[in-house]
């Protein structure tokens, strides 16, 4: 599906609104955060930590995610990915499948893309420097275009395209924004979920800084989709569909929201910042994050955007 009109038509045909989005969090306290075999108490569930991963394990897990984001945004913004000097390290190195420059028509979206691309490259450089010789290599990454690509599989799971159809994230501004939406909310929740596991105050401060940047990025993408969705409601419907698909992968908890506003007329309230009923951002464990990255709700060590899995000790998705 290569044009915005075709995409919008498909989204209109398949769009649906979620009922009772926050019911789980209204009824239940926050669950324990599980990452790489560690269980850490949340605000309402005091559970003893067991077999906690090291700070290096956590930073390397984050580095895998930053490789993915950096490659997508750099290709979309500039037509070229990370230099090879920023992709080596321990583990099994992999190549990037696909990726190309977007012919942006909205100058603001083009500027956002270039800014986010530079930020994600800086995150890769920072994490690799912090880890030194312990840094893992970039794994194989699928950001390509085709009916069997990770982006098409994700769009198909959300009901945005049909069997055998293709979602091209580089076709236009709107497709790029929806592809970015797949990543950004997940990055925010992943960093928040990992924060309680980091023991070094220095690394924790750095992780908090990256989390803040990812939250800014998510807000840019969500705000732009919301603004464009005022004129083209199918874009807002698409964020709801993607959110539903992510929640179908990472377990029974409702850890996701699209950008659909609440209220009507002068009482309309936007939903740029996805929060729980206490006004706090959601958390995802490493396993839940990999459910989405691998596009698989079951326990596995590869698939989706990482065809051969991620590098490092934290590499298995949760069993949902």
UniProtKB/TrEMBL annotation:
Pfam families: Ferritin_2. Residues 247-271 are annotated as: Disordered. This is Ferritin-like domain-containing protein. It comes from the Bacteria. PROSITE patterns: TAT.
């Amino acid at each position: 599906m290569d044009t915005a009109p075709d995409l919008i038509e498909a989204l209109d045909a398949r769009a649906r609104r979620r009922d009772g989005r926050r019911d789980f969090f209204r009824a239940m306290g926050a669950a324990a955060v599980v990452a790489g075999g560690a269980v850490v108490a949340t605000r309402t569930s005091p559970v003893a930590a067991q077999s906690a991963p090291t700070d290096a394990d956590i930073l390397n897990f984050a580095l895998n995610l930053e490789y993915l984001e950096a490659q997508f945004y750099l290709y979309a913004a500039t037509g070229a990915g990370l230099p090879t000097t920023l992709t080596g390290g321990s583990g099994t190195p992999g190549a990037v499948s696909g990726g190309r420059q977007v012919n942006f028509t909205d100058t603001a979206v083009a500027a956002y893309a270039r800014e986010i691309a530079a930020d994600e490259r800086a995150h890769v450089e920072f994490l690799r420097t912090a880890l030194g010789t312990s840094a893992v290599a970039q794994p194989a990454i699928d950001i390509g275009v085709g009916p069997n690509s990770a982006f098409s599989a994700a769009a198909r799971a959300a009901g945005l395209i049909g069997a055998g159809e293709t979602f091209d994230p580089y076709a236009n501004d709107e497709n790029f924004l929806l592809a970015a939406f797949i990543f950004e909310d997940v990055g925010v929740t992943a960093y928040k979920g990992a924060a309680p596991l980091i023991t070094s105050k220095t690394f924790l401060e750095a992780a908090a800084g990256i989390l803040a940047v990812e939250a800014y990025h998510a807000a840019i993408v969500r705000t732009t989709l919301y603004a464009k969705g005022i004129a083209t409601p199918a874009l807002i419907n698409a964020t709801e569909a993607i959110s539903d698909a992510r929640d179908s992968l990472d377990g029974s908890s409702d850890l996701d929201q699209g950008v659909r506003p609440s209220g009507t007329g002068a009482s309309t309230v936007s939903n740029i910042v996805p929060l729980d009923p206490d006004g706090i951002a959601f958390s995802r464990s490493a396993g839940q994050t990999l459910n989405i990255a691998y596009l698989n709700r079951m326990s596995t060590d590869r698939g989706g955007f990482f065809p051969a899995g991620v590098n490092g000790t934290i590499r298995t998705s949760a069993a949902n």
